[in-house]
Design goal:
Elements (H helix, E strand, L loop, with lengths): L1 H37 L19 E7 L9 E5 L10 E4 L2 E5 L7 E5 L2 E2 L5 E11 L4 E11 L19 E11 L10 E7 L7 E4 L9 E8 L4 E6 L2 E6 L7 E7 L8 E12 L1
Antiparallel strand pairs: 1-16, 2-5, 3-4, 4-16, 5-15, 6-15, 7-12, 7-16, 8-9, 8-15, 9-10, 10-11, 12-13, 13-14
Length: 274
């Protein structure tokens, strides 16, 4: 009888220990469950739409990140003479750097004409940085319209810049101190538009940051002629004549007196939307 009682006590002790072990494991599992519940499933990740700042439905994209070399969609030529030349053009860490290394012959980066098709909006996004070497700097980014698909740029004796097309929109990055200057500011960023119907309009951004990256966006309404230009978080608005030409091209250059001026471009993207 004593032996039976001893065996019974042993069984009860074993069952009791097992219950405590199970209870501890259950409690441990209960603590871990909230971590598993809040764990992010890859299928539920929030995806940021890169075109979220583009008005309308995008149907054509021209995107350039300048990772290694210039593509067939871009040309390099010299200021004024327009001769093809790689002088002052450097590809570094996924950027293209344009440097004025010869007086009055700064490099111009220009896109080949891109068909506008039936776009209602044209959006141009750029990430850039610019710096000046003296008090006579007038770097720029211009928007041209043209009827020609020709990628060759030839000097026009009357107006060499018209070789690229008609330029109703431009931003200028200036550090220009000269008695002959008629610019509305001596240092900063300026937004220009030209229109037969609305006249010329010149506006200055409140802040123009040199030697630092900035984002710039043009949005052109092809049905109304309204143009907005946004640099960082500041937006200016103007009007142009509704373009009748079928192609668009862009130029960027670091022109200024003497040498040492620079523009560095990380990316330039063009979006056509309806």
């Amino acid at each position: 009888m004593k032996r039976v009682l001893v065996l019974l006590i042993i069984v009860l002790l074993v069952v009791g220990c097992s219950s405590k072990t199970i209870e501890k494991e259950t409690k441990s599992t209960d603590v871990e469950e909230p971590v598993e519940i809040v764990e992010v499933d890859e299928s539920d990740e929030i995806v940021i739409d890169e075109d979220s700042d583009i008005i309308g439905e995008v149907f054509v994209k021209y995107e350039e990140s300048f990772d290694e070399d210039i593509s067939d969609d871009w040309l390099i030529s010299k200021y004024v003479t327009l001769e093809p030349s790689p002088q002052g053009v450097y590809f570094e860490n996924g950027t293209v750097r344009l440097v004025a290394e010869e007086t009055d012959r700064a490099p111009i980066l220009s896109s080949t004409p891109q068909a506008i098709e039936d776009a209602k909006y044209i959006t141009i996004n750029a990430k850039m940085k610019t710096s000046f070497a003296n008090e006579y700097y007038t770097g720029a980014m211009g928007i041209f319209f043209t009827d020609s698909q020709d990628i060759e740029v030839e000097v026009n004796a009357d107006s060499w810049s018209s070789s690229f097309g008609r330029r109703p929109i431009q931003t200028e990055y200036v550090n220009y101190f000269s008695d002959s200057s008629r610019r509305i500011i001596d240092n900063g960023f300026i937004f220009y538009t030209a229109s037969e119907e609305h006249g010329s309009n010149i506006q200055a951004f409140e802040s123009g940051v040199f030697d630092e990256w900035f984002t710039q966006q043009f949005v052109i309404n092809m049905e109304t002629g309204e143009v907005t230009c946004t640099i960082n978080d500041e937006t200016l608005t103007s009007m142009i004549d509704i373009p009748k030409e079928g192609y668009l091209r862009i130029w960027v250059h670091p022109y200024g007196w003497f040498t040492g001026h620079e523009v560095v471009i990380d990316s330039i993207d063009i979006y056509l939307s309806k």
